[in-house]
Amino acid sequence: MRPITLIRNAKHWKTGARVDVGFRDGVIVADLAEREAGSVIEADGLTLAPGLVDLHVHLREPGQSVKETIATGTRAAAAGGFTAVCCMPNTIPVLDEAVQVEWVRERAAAVGSCRVHPIGAVTMGQQGEQLAPAMALKTAGAVALSDDGHPVVSAAIMRRALEYARHANLPIVCHEEDPTLRGEGQMNEGFTATRLGLRGIPNAAESVMVRRDVELAELTGGRVHLAHLSCFESFEALRDAKRRRLAVTGETCPHYWTLTDEAVGDYDTNARMNPPLRSERDRDATLAAIVDGTVDCLATDHAPHTADEKRRPFEEAPFGIVGLETALALTITTLVRPGHLSLARALELWTDAPRRVFDLPAVRLEPGNPADLVLLDPEAEWTVEPERFHSKGRNTPFAGWKLHGRVLATVCGGRLTHRDPSVGVARVRRELAAAGEGN
Amino acid sequence: MSRATTPPRERRHLLGLEGMSREEILAILDAAECCRARLRAGGMPFDDLRGVTVLLAFFEDSTRTRVSFELAARHLGATVATLTTAGSSISKGESLFDTVQNIGAMGVDLVVVRHSASGAPAFLARQLDVGVINAGDGRHEHPTQGLLDLMTLRDAWKNRFAGRRLALVGDVAHSRVARSAIFGLTALGASVTVAGPATLIPAGLERLGCAVAPTVEEAMEGADAVMALRLQKERMDGGLLPSLGEFSKVWGLTVERVRLLARDAVVLHPGPMNRGVEVMPEVADGERSVILDQVENGVALRCAVLERCAEAARRAPPAPVAGAGLGAPGGTGAAHAKETV
């Protein structure tokens, strides 16, 4: 029998109790006899939690590996404390067939640093016309369906997609955007856009589609997951859906509660994403929706682009920012430290909550559960330095921010997938590193 | 909005009037008046900018602005090169960044840039170690137009801006001229009232410092000047306007509406005019029209701007090689061997 790896003297993320957690062959075990421990991580009071899950990541592979690869994207995920990511199907080719989904899973198994759960397309080629084979996609391992980045424009197609997805019991992740209302919009409609002479994207471009899909959830009984919600009206619609007990869930992203459209400043392409950064009122509404539980979970919408692509005039640069390596620290710094959420609740929004939304197996710090773990120091302060990201993408509006909360070690399936170089060495025994890397 | 005097080194750029102080604007207007007097007296070319290379980089069609800059640069003795979109590497898919890096490597001192993307000149100024003059970027600003409008209004208003009011009428949403006019006039203590179809008034416009009137009559009543903004014909396509005829009837500058203005008020238009649409021919050619004064002032004003920017570029300390460190001042890299004149 292989020796166990023991995490000693950690602080339980929920109870705050001192705990020792050991695992062997990727599973948490009950027998923690020290003599069986092959390696020991001295947690020294660090917080131990289940690994984080990100329901909304663009790994860019296949097809756009100049922006990101499965290897670099999952390495970034591990550094951010994630043990699972759900990757969007807007790759080249689109993940609209079982073989594509299988390829991503196999590639991730071979080179990945975390679990990768692909999201299949709703329609073939994300063209919004012909349904993708939901059952085959599910069998191949897809955990949800989405035409992310290309909203399903036709309400009729969305209706059929929701009806059909019920057979697979898969949620449809909706990037809510009415392309006609967005038009050629480049950033949030409002004073900053007007000052800079940029075309605006009104809140309604998002919220009218949220309303539509809430109604379609009612009509079809299908599961709707509202992606990266950004504005007051969308949260109102999500609240309404929950009052009506519809199968509608929603997520938001750190940039929507930390920034407003003023961050665009002097045409900063790293503050350019879709949906765009909104007004102060929307930022407040995002925060309120997180605090009151309207939002089911958090996600990053990690969207890496090359420096060349972002080094263009604002209107010509692509939308999106990276998020995996700043998500947890932004959450702790801006939600936990000011007292909006407890640490346990904040972590829940990145762990148990997203697992529930996509029916992923739960992870508890108890025997028999997968050893998907993160060890973190919620107090540790660090400065965001994009050049040190593991992601290929350096496109973040948070460069230079001083954040609290550092991931010191990540364990995925019993394998040490990240160890903080500055702090971790003193806490992790050499044998463990060897064992971890040898797994 | 904070207004501060631009640091000397940054004066080699003219990216917009937003944030520019009253003193700076008046200094440019004073210089432009001197230039106008010299140009009227004749004897061009002068040698103020001898040895200075000015590139006119026009990534979007323009006739008057380009000719006006070219005349201004030649009158001052500068070496002038022109880059227009057709036939340039831009149409072959080269990125703006690569194009301007190449320009920087050619040893250009000032780039006058017109681009359809808002913020393109600011982008160039960050990337390149040359002075950048914005000749109109997207829907953002057109600062030399704004300044020549101020120069024209200063004449009409007998050197007094305080208490004066400009009515700005028409398609504000798509107008870079409007933004520069609002920033410039508010900096000088004048006020601006805007009127136009709701579809062409952008969100949050009041926060730029202007008032928005519900009708063109209310905007023009008692105003000391009115400027009609050019209406692009393609505005009918996106459902922004029902018809040119309707626009003309409700928002066009007619003789009757011009009578609402204060005594001695003047009529401006940044051109090119759609006669019979945003401005009626009898108004454009009428006695209150200063539209051709604007054009004359344009050359003199651009002379003053070129001089200011060239002077600041001349004084600029040794800077990194163009493109290195994204053009950040004080970055690493060998000193750029800039010719001083």
* DSSP strand tally of chain B: 9
The top level CATH class name of the largest domain in chain B = Alpha Beta
Shape of chain A: globular
The tally of structural domains of chain B comes to 2
User: How many beta strands in the DSSP annotation of chain A?
Assistant: 18
Strand count, sense and barrel status of the largest sheet of chain A are: 8 strands, mixed
**Coarse structural class of chain B:** alpha/beta
Mean pLDDT of chain A, nearest integer? 94
Specify the CATH homologous superfamily of the largest domain in chain B: Aspartate/ornithine carbamoyltransferase
Give the amount of beta strand of chain A, in percent: 15-25%
Strand content of chain B: 5-15%
Summarize the structure.
The complex is a heterodimer of chains A (439) and B (341). By secondary structure, chain A is of the alpha/beta class. Chain A has helices at residues 70-79, 98-111, 134-140, 155-168, 179-182, 191-196, 203-220, 232-243, 254-258, 280-291, 307-310, 327-336, 343-348, 352-357, 424-427, 430-438; strands at residues 4-12, 18-24, 27-29, 37-42, 47-50, 52-57, 82-87, 115-120, 144-146, 172-174, 187-188, 200-201, 224-226, 248-252, 297-298, 373-383, 402-412, 415-419.
